Amino acid sequence: MKVAVRPSSVVQFGLTPSTTQVTWSVTETNGGTVTAAGSYGAPAFSGVFHVVATSVGNPLVTGQATATVDSGVTISGTTPVSMTACDPVQLTATVTGSVDTGLLWSTPAACGTVTATGIFKSARGTGSCVVTAQAHADVAKTAAVTINVSIERVVSVVIAPASVALAPAGTASFAANVTTSCGTFPAGT
């Protein structure tokens, strides 16, 4: 089932037969809320969100509805976006209903950075982040995308010193630096 929903509005979902017992959930962490009675509260920004009903009697049986929220700003592509830590990702959004199609991009500092042109670069680490695009002409028009960040790419490992000369039963200390998509770090950090 697909429904078009206005930002911050409420839609009541139902079941057939109505005596079926289910638990309700929203797949996306920023995709709004749903009550135990199936009343879905949409977020204030654009996006495509999934409302799921899971059978209490058999949790393997589920039903899903897709709620498309349109605030006048739409981020292109699918959500969530998957990326490797620190590798930049180009996000694209469009503004409708305004001559001024400029956007203001933002994300929490703990997640990383996003440029004025929508290039997102995560901080080091893994997890989920939310990036928001806001219409320049009307700050009430926003869209958000969830970014799932996976572990950084390893580019190289350098051991120092590269070679040693040891006497019999001698010892030497080595150190390693690992270069990843996030920079160069001592091994183990």
Characterize the structure shown.
Helix content is 0%, strand content 49%. The protein contains no helices and 19 strands. β13 (112-114) and β14 (119-122) form a beta hairpin. The mean pLDDT is 90.
What is the total tally of β strands? 19
Q: Give me the CATH fold name of the largest domain.
A: Immunoglobulin-like
> From the coordinates shown, what is the CATH architecture of the largest domain?
Sandwich
Q: Main β-sheet: number of strands, strand sense, barrel status?
A: 4 strands, mixed
Chain-averaged pLDDT: 90
User: What structural class results from the helix and strand content?
Assistant: mainly beta
Overall 3D form: flat
Strand order of the largest sheet: 1-7-6-3
The level of helicity is under 10%
What is the H-and-E element order? EEEEEEEEEEEEEEEEEEE
Low-confidence stretches: none
The amount of beta strand, in percent, is over 45%
**What's the number of domains?**
3
**Rounded Rg:** 23 Å
Distance between the termini: 47 Å
Please report the first level of CATH classification, the CATH class of the largest domain.
Mainly Beta
Work out the helix count: 0
Summed up:
This protein is mainly β and 189 residues long.
Describe the SSE topology.
Layout: E1 2-5, E2 10-12, E3 22-26, E4 33-34, E5 39-41, E6 47-55, E7 62-69, E8 73-75, E9 81-84, E10 89-90, E11 93-95, E12 103-106, E13 112-114, E14 119-122, E15 127-135, E16 142-150, E17 154-160, E18 175-180, E19 183-186
Parallel strand pairs: 1-7, 9-16
Antiparallel strand pairs: 2-5, 3-6, 4-5, 6-7, 8-11, 10-14, 12-15, 13-14, 15-16, 17-18, 18-19
